[in-house]
Design brief:
The protein has 448 residues and is α/β, with parallel strands linked by helices. It contains 12 helices and 21 strands. It has a single domain, classed as FAD/NAD(P)-binding domain (3-Layer(bba) Sandwich), CATH 3.50.50. The two termini are 33 Å apart.
């Protein structure tokens, strides 16, 4: 259905083949990879994107579609401010194909304690020039006509908004291709080639590509790929559940979240529904390997997590997923073209019931589609965006921790500058790779 994510069954728009030579090879065709390639091409660099499955088929088309600054880690906010400007530009360049709508993001407060937490974030918002403000209970009621519950207030950033991920990703990939990027779907990167201790090429299932630089934007697969090259990244994935309703009467144009339910209107008149308080952890070998790094996050989110003791074979941290492979043999990336996990059925029932209870005039809420997605996360819930010191010529941009869609255009611009050896224009110290090995305390950002 319209509004559902891209899947492995989606016909490829960019079948290739890849060229034998490029300046830069980008591994991963999600929003980070596509945007990095777009800005590399704008710099005049010959750029190839290799994607094992379909452009945007994993988290880049399975996310909520929020384009938000509200609630982000302070280190991400300068990037997000830039991303807002870039989204406007990209919407124009794609002929309004991304579905961008600026109708605000609203966090609801059920009590005074929650409202006080929101108020505490206002200083961060003001320091970055955001238009964020606190709302009274009456102002929230005016934004949510027909809501059956009263709220103590809310936090609103009117300049935030939403886009349609399943429409935006093909449009952005098409835009990158129009700028000269060669995008190749169904083409897994197997290994990075080295010469004299630095990047000299990428071996793909369709052959070798000579290059001077590589960008790894592999989302949930990045840690597995790096580990094969002797580079450690404490990355895990969690499964999230999302539903889409059939078209419904207009309730609000803002994207809204309270303690248990998040929702936003879609372009077709339906709503995206998702739990704001629940995810599933698929336990695998890396869950134990990196347990110490994640201990604080596990304690903080224990009540909202469901732990499954067996990560499926083929998943990035699956118990039976190979950790080593040869360049001339199929790899885990070819065996699992697209991570397409089943949604959690009880959560779907809860979403439909919760939305109907909040807006009783709707009656029973029909769900037209539902899907799962694997969110790649790092221990401090902020990305890794950095050169890899152990392998000159490699830049990593991964671990977006569930909020990479909105910030993606700015991350892509920064990555292009890193590859070109230019100053990125933002302080990236919080996102450095070395923080996982130099004894730094890994402190998660604000959870408001």
């Amino acid at each position: 259905m319209r509004g559902a994510p891209i899947t492995a069954a989606t016909p490829p728009a960019h079948p290739g083949p890849p060229p034998a030579r490029a300046d830069v090879v980008v591994i991963g065709g999600g929003i980070i990879g596509i945007m990095s390639a777009y800005f590399l091409a704008m710099r005049g660099l010959r750029t190839v994107v290799v994607e094992k499955g379909r452009v945007g088929a994993e988290q880049s088309s399975r996310n909520w579609g929020w384009v938000r600054a509200q609630g982000r880690d302070p280190a991400e906010l300068p990037l997000m401010v830039e991303a807002h400007r870039l989204w406007d530009r990209l919407e124009a360049e794609t002929g309004r194909a991304t579905g961008l709508v600026r109708a605000g993001v609203l966090y609801l407060a059920t009590d005074a304690a929650r409202l006080a937490r929101y108020e505490g974030w206002l200083g961060t918002a003001r320091a970055h020039g955001l238009d964020t403000r606190l709302l009274t209970g009456a102002e929230v009621a005016a934004m949510l006509p027909g809501a059956a519950r009263a709220f103590a207030g809310g936090l609103l950033t009117p300049s935030d908004g939403r886009a349609e991920p399943e429409r935006a990703m093909p449009a952005l990939a098409g835009l990158a291709a129009a700028r000269g990027v060669v995008v190749v779907e169904g083409c897994a990167a197997r290994l990075i080639d080295r010469a004299a201790g630095r990047v000299c090429g990428v071996v793909t299932e369709a052959g070798r590509i000579d290059c001077d630089a590589v960008v790894l934007a592999g989302g949930a697969w990045s840690g597995l790929f790096l580990r094969r090259h002797g580079i450690s990244l404490p990355q895990l994935t969690v499964r999230a559940t999302v539903a889409a309703t059939a078209p419904l009467p207009a309730l609000t144009e803002a994207a809204v979240s309270d303690r248990s339910l998040a929702f936003r209107r879609r372009a077709d008149g339906g709503y995206i529904l998702a739990p704001s308080d629940f995810h599933e952890v698929l336990v695998g070998p890396d869950s134990f390997r990196y347990l110490r790094a994640y201990a604080g996050q596990v304690r903080a989110e224990l009540a909202s997590s469901r732990f499954l003791p067996w990560a499926p074979a083929g998943y990035p941290d699956g118990w039976l997923t190979p950790r080593r492979w040869a360049a001339d043999r199929p790899t885990p990336f070819e065996r699992m073209r697209v991570l397409d996990p089943c949604p959690h059925r009880p959560t779907l029932d809860r979403l439909a019931a919760g939305f109907a209870a909040l807006f009783p005039a709707l009656g029973p809420v029909p769900l037209a589609a539902a899907w799962g997605g694997m969110i790649d996360t790092l221990p401090d819930v902020v990305p890794a965006i950095d050169h890899v010191a152990a392998l000159p010529g490699l830049v990593v941009a991964t671990g977006m921790s569930g909020h990479g869609f909105g910030i993606g255009p700015a991350v892509g611009r920064v990555v292009a500058d890193l590859v070109a050896g230019e100053a990125p224009g933002h302080d990236l110290a919080r996102f450095r790779m070395a923080r996982f090995a130099d004894g730094s305390r890994l402190v998660p950002g604000p959870t408001i």
